[in-house]
Design a protein that fits this description.
6 copies of one chain form a homohexamer. Chain A is α+β, with helices and mostly antiparallel strands and 142 residues long. Helices cover 28% and strands 30% of the residues of chain A. In chain A, helix 2 packs across helix 3. The interface between C and E is medium-sized, with 28 and 19 residues.
Amino acid sequence: MPVVEITHREEFAASHRLHNPALSDEENRRIFGICNNLHGHGHSYELEVSVRGPVPGRTGMVMNLLELGRILRERVIADLDHKNLDLDVPWLAGRITTAENLAIAIWERLEPVLGAHEGCRMHRIRLYESTKNRVEYCGPAS
Amino acid sequence: MPVVEITHREEFAASHRLHNPALSDEENRRIFGICNNLHGHGHSYELEVSVRGPVPGRTGMVMNLLELGRILRERVIADLDHKNLDLDVPWLAGRITTAENLAIAIWERLEPVLGAHEGCRMHRIRLYESTKNRVEYCGPAS
Amino acid sequence: MPVVEITHREEFAASHRLHNPALSDEENRRIFGICNNLHGHGHSYELEVSVRGPVPGRTGMVMNLLELGRILRERVIADLDHKNLDLDVPWLAGRITTAENLAIAIWERLEPVLGAHEGCRMHRIRLYESTKNRVEYCGPAS
Amino acid sequence: MPVVEITHREEFAASHRLHNPALSDEENRRIFGICNNLHGHGHSYELEVSVRGPVPGRTGMVMNLLELGRILRERVIADLDHKNLDLDVPWLAGRITTAENLAIAIWERLEPVLGAHEGCRMHRIRLYESTKNRVEYCGPAS
Amino acid sequence: MPVVEITHREEFAASHRLHNPALSDEENRRIFGICNNLHGHGHSYELEVSVRGPVPGRTGMVMNLLELGRILRERVIADLDHKNLDLDVPWLAGRITTAENLAIAIWERLEPVLGAHEGCRMHRIRLYESTKNRVEYCGPAS
Amino acid sequence: MPVVEITHREEFAASHRLHNPALSDEENRRIFGICNNLHGHGHSYELEVSVRGPVPGRTGMVMNLLELGRILRERVIADLDHKNLDLDVPWLAGRITTAENLAIAIWERLEPVLGAHEGCRMHRIRLYESTKNRVEYCGPAS
């Protein structure tokens, strides 16, 4: 069976502050620059999840893209949209909310669900923080 | 002389919370919904400023678009980017930071400078809060 | 009170065929070209609705943009998305489903609801048929 | 010689219905959801083809991107644009026209032509069904 | 009959240099800045033309958008795409090729053709020089 | 430590002409087509640079994306923006300025700087010449 990669994209609006409480204020400013602003800032994030799997003749689909969208909205977007990433999201607690760490945490939250779809495996999380900056994570094995 | 409209666009990343302290918590939740989230949220805003004016033969320009960009960055973006709109911006103090109020405040901040350019008048502020939502303000006379 | 214009955007995926049953097949082909293809074709439409109104100090909003989105999805998108515009939509029956006629029909469907919001008036329907082609309708008085 | 990947993008507007005639109506509704709508629906598809190859010093090009565009338009877009994918395209006959199957069929249609270019090999078909959903196919060997 | 505005968009890739030969080199540098670079620079321009007119019941169209696109490509894009705007375009000779002057010249080139369509009038030329900068011209009467 | 890929995007506006002086005028026209236009043409290029590396717990970042942007602007954009690629850029001298050759030259210019960041390696240069055409280069080892 041919193997195809499918990708679904959603948006969320959130605020955060880059700050490591284990470091001094001066070190935080040096490392995180304007992203360390005391009262925080925010982004309209764009989030993409990619799944790879075989295409059975019976359905012609790796999995239904609308179903992939539903899982993404229920497991991730509902928790992040119109929220403060540092204070409102239990599964981000204790992490510096850089784009890199967000991508890793979102992978960990989706992989158990999407990896259980027959024959599929989760392939990539891509997260846009703005039109200029994005990150990608392909899991611990990559 | 022909009259042309020129527009420059910039982005900024900011956080805010929609909340009117004169109202009860319940009324705030009813009016502002998820935008009233206690710890705030954020957006990648896109901001456009439009100026109209005659095109002199000597320059072929209403005004230099790179100069318009410089004014926008110095007078507005520098104050808003990577900031909390409710707490970090003196010229927004006391305003509920809806997209509508932001557009009005940005107009008031730019008009004295841009309206002073020879023959020009400021025409419009357009502010995108996300790819789905935007507002426009054309000044008090419109 | 300052007057501001707010705009919300949604997408829908639909099929249609441009064909006037009162004309001959040859005339239909001449007028509508490839859009007259017997078995139809389709588009990912982008639809924008704009409302103008005063901004009261109590809310700082013309109306809640999320509420405007809800009305647009319930009154329009739910009827058009993943549908055949010629066969599946009662309020388009008897109309040639050009972008122009779609914009007019969507205006007529939304104006009674949006024009009833206190102090507001509906200002514009903008409909993108593709990244290259769009239409705008500002109502019968424009 | 350095190896570079080049990509060309085109759009097409088409209608389709997801339906497997070997299954019951109920199963079709369960599997394909709103995409099974009896009279079909449509999309503005974006299609990308990627080719990899060495860059000779004489031309500085893997192959001319304008030539790649011409091949894509002649071999694929001309057959799909403003068409019903289920009824109008001989080389899609008998396939459920999911994005996955479209990508595979387009690969099979282009690979014999593009793989014959000196030193090149076709690398990827990417197909956007909307701004939210896309698929990628990298051939049977991938 | 309802009046609707239709808009078609095309792209072209061109080079130019902003320079007024009647001024000194120093004045040119002061007025045009980096756009005065001796060997020129270039842009991927996006050009939109808007036409307004009544929508007859027989066609449901102001004019066929594909026909509007054909006129735009034949009368304007064919002359500007992959050209040097200062040296290769007879109808731009003697003009400083600012975005403002380009928009005016394109209006003058299209208006005699598009204004002759029954009941239509040309409404606007919008020209994007980049994602950040654009101009609009609505004709001498505006 | 998890490995993540980060990408920063910038734009530049430049002119060029595709022409190999070692070939006849006729051969140049045959190979490069409209891109061989005597007086050149131009593009609004979009340039992306991707870096891969581990994410230390102390910073949560591969490297600061704003720092990656600064390096890209200082080492590449400052030399290319509002320039003629054939005449104004010492490190492009002697190269046919195709998108392929630009991507290779930009890789060579950035790799010594970005590959020196602790634990990082440069992964990809992606260059858009227009919305339709792009190239990617992943280095000599790929």
